[in-house]
Amino acid sequence: QLQLVESGGGLVQAGGSLRLSCAASGRSFSSYTMGWFRQAPGKEREFVASIHSYAYSTFYADSVKGRFTISRDNAKNTVYLQMNSLIPEDTALYYCAGGVGVYNYWGQGTQVTVSS
Predict the structure, then answer these.
(1) Distance CA 22, CA 114 (A)
(2) Of 76, 38, 74, 36, the residue nearest 55 (C-alpha)
(3) What tens digit of pLDDT does each residue of 29-79 get?
(4) How far apart are CA 67 and CA 58, in angstroms?
């Protein structure tokens, strides 16, 4: 099992940057695919980015490609989301998730608000 705790959210002006962190506790963190999702008010939760376990392959939603970067540090049991060139449409509650095949484990989320 994994317990996930996100941090790093906040209020930022358009064009700014934030770095989200997701600290995981539990065994075998390195074997899990980790992802970031977000949910804006009145909208469904959507995929943002993922990073696979040992291969470190990464995938991004088209809306964030070139602006966001996902990374992981298996020694620290942590996954990151570096967000640059933020736009108001990035405003959402950002969730960290982990799993093998499916995302079984979810954090509580961290709020990101981008002002115009």
Answers:
(1) 20
(2) 74
(3) 989 999 999 999 999 999 999 999 876 799 999 999 999 999 999 999 999
(4) 14
